[in-house]
Amino acid sequence: MGASGGGFNYQPNQTSSDSQRKYQSATDEAKRFEAGTGKRNVFVSFHMEDEAQVRLLTHQATSGNFGLEFRDYSVKEPFDEKWRANVRERISQTSVTIVMIGPDTASRPAVNFEIEESYRQGKKVIGVKIYKDRNDPIPNAMVKHKAPIVNWVLSDIQKELDES
Predict the structure, then answer these.
(1) Could you read off the pLDDT of 85-112 as tens digits, one per residue?
(2) Residue 101: beta bridge partners?
(3) DSSP label at 139?
């Protein structure tokens, strides 16, 4: 499952134009937030077994001089249509998705969904290897889209963000 993102309630019965307006509103809100703070609003996709590492990354990034803002909007629900709707909404309120790549990340359908949804919404996707000395598998969706992969070094992550 993933984490971080935004905050409107999604109603699956909405018409396509209602959904588009809601997504546009959320995207505009994310841009205003970033313009006002100078920080990127980040959606983090990860396997739940790697949650401790995600917490460490967010702590490191928010305690330094890095232009990242992590807001925890974890979707800890079953991987169903309601979950997908919540994830779509949260991704729409960010400008970039960071995928924390650990030993089992690539095998998680939810992670691949979050990556594909991020690309569908035009967001940049960056992979961050949790263990730089290991060759953990890369999620198929990242390989398909040729997403950049960096080691867990904040300056490398920031450099990749600056290129988006």
Answers:
(1) 989 999 999 989 999 999 999 999 999 9
(2) 129
(3) P
Give, in order, the Cα–Cα distances in Å from 115 to each of 11, 27, 107, 109, 110: 22, 17, 13, 10, 9
DSSP 3-state of 141: helix
Spell out the residues 6+ positions from residue 161 whose beta carbon is closer than 8 angstroms to its own. Answer: 40, 67, 68, 96, 124, 126
User: 114 is in which domain, residue-wise?
Assistant: 2-162
The model's pTM is 0.75
Query: How many independent structural domains does the chain possess?
Result: 1
**The residue to which tokens 């992670």 are assigned:** 111
CATH number at residue 66: 3.40.50.11200
Q: What is the b/e burial string over 50-70, where b = at least 16 CB atoms within 10 angstroms of the residue's CB?
A: bbebbeebbeebeeeebebbb
Chain centre distance of CA 31? 15
